[in-house]
Amino acid sequence: MRYFTFGLMLLSLFLLALNSIGHFIPPLTSDYPPEENARHYTQRELSPAAAREQLSIAHASTTMRNREKLERFFFLLTHSFVHGSSYTLKPYDNWYLWTQAFLSNSDFEKNVILDTQNAELLWRRGRGFCHQVAWIFVKFARDMGFASGLVRLNNHYVAEVEYDKDKWLTVDPDLGLLWNGRFSSAEFQEQLKSIHQKLTHTGYSEKRAKRLAELYAIRPESVVYKNFYISRDYYIQEINAFRYMWWIPIGALIVSLFMYLVGKRLTQPLKS
Fold first, then answer.
1. Residue spans of beta strands (DSSP E) within the chain
2. What digits encode the pLDDT tens for the residues 37-89?
3. CA–CA separation, 184 vs 220, rounded Å?
4. What is the Cα–Cα distance from 27 to 81, expressed in whole angstroms?
């Protein structure tokens, strides 16, 4: 019993330490070449922590209009998040969910779980693919009180947000593009005629801009609108897993301490 008690205590402390380590991991750097890309695409100009602090200030502002707040958010996110390989969950992010992924019955479910929908975590890591940075925008825009959702164009994701009644913006924080209106609107389609110029003005080379413009080459009726990148069920599962990653080791630590004290009490010699 003594060995079990100390083993449980050590495991609890290890898991608590693992949870804490994740908060000290610095933002990741881009693993894409800077050549032909806009500066923000591969080079961070603002730390995620500083960007979130400035977003809180903008959100609390009583002088900025809704559109100005969202444009500020777009700027902060674009310049604090770099493009790179899709970020997947690590043990120090959430050991409970990570374990669930590797105990799943299929590679599909494993990959779905590891493709985290935790927007706060993704922004803290500061690197990922288009769907991840678009989801960050959607989640934080909703937290600010705006209606927002994901839009899938071919294999590229952007976000849309309603800043006033029936007034929308479409934002692409991955490529650094901001558009008036929803993708299906005539206003948006008119803007698409100058997408190549918009991309080169953002900083992409002529050759790169031509390839990126193809991501928007999709008919409005073929666009897919989504409330979550994966699903609401997996999102809730991840929220619950965040609680469990702390509750389980704390509970186990309390139990092990109780067992230790009880065991110590039972082994003490009785006083005559």
1. 82-83, 127-128, 147-153, 156-164, 167-172, 177-180, 224-226
2. 999 999 999 999 999 999 999 999 999 999 999 999 999 999 999 999 999 99
3. 5
4. 9
Rounded average pLDDT over 15-23: 94
The better pLDDT of the pair 127, 267 is held by 127
**Domain layout of the chain by residue ranges:** 2-182+223-266
In terms of Cβ atoms closer than 10 Å to its own Cβ (0-12, 13-18, 19+), residue 261 is exposed
Domain 2-182+223-266 CATH (choose: 3.10.620, 3.90.79, 3.30.70, 3.40.50): 3.10.620
H or E element, residue 58: helix 48-60
Q: How many CB atoms lie within 10 A of CB 132?
A: 27
Distances in Å between the Cα of 260 and the Cα atoms of 6, 12, 140, 158 are: 8, 14, 45, 54
Structure tokens given for 217: 């080459």
Read off the pLDDT of residues 210-228 as tens digits, 9 standing for 90 and up.
999 999 999 888 999 999 9
Distance CA 269, CA 272 (A): 9
Which of these, 73, 80, 83, lies nearest to 34 by C-alpha position? 83
Radius of gyration of the chain (CA): 23
What are the φ and ψ backbone dihedral angles of 255, each rounded to 5 degrees?
-65, -45
User: Is 3 strand, coil or helix?
Assistant: helix
What does pTM read for this prediction?
0.92
Cα–Cα distance for residue pair 123/135, rounded to 1 Å: 10
